[in-house]
Amino acid sequence: MSRDHTFQSRATSELALLRKEQAKLEKDVGQRLFLGLSVMDTLRACVRLGHHKAAAALKKQFNVTDRRFAWLKVRVLAEGHDWDGLELFAGERRTSPIGWEPFLEAAKKFHAPREYQARMIARLPDSAAKAGEYTAIDCTREAAEVAAKLRDADLFTSIQNAVSANSPAGLAIAQIRERAMATFR
Length: 185
Hints:
mainly alpha; 11 helices
C-alpha cells in the first residue's frame, strides 16, 4: 500500500471512530449536537455542556496535546462565564501546560468577578507584573505583599502612592512597609 493510501485509510478509520463517539455522546445527551463536528468542535461542545470526562476521553483517544486541550478548555469555560469550572480546571494540576497567564487573560477578557481574578493572579509567580495585576483590580494590599517579597522598594513606593495614606488600604500598606523595612536596606 502506498503512503497516500495509508494516510487515507487511517483518516477514514479515525473519522469512523469519531462518528461512533459522537453518536454515543448524542445518545447520552439526548440531542443531535455532535454528529458532523470536527474533533476540536466536539471537544468544545463537550466542555460547554459540562461533559468533562467525555472530553478528557476524546482528548486521549484522538491524541490531542495537553497544551491544545488546555487552551480550548480555558477559552470555552471563560466564554461561558463558568468561573467555578475554570478555577476547578486550574486546580487540577500543580502546573499548567500553558502557564497561569492565559487563565487570567481569559478571566479579564470575559469580565470575571474581581475575586476570581484575584485568585488567578495569586497563581502567578511573584513579579512586578503580578503586583501590577493586583493593582489593576484594586487589590493594593496584595500588591504590596508581592513588592515586599520581591524586596523592591521602588515598586512598593509606587503602590503606596496609588492609595490615600489614611485609607484602610493605605494603613495596611504602611504596616506591611514597617514589617518589611529591614529588607529594603
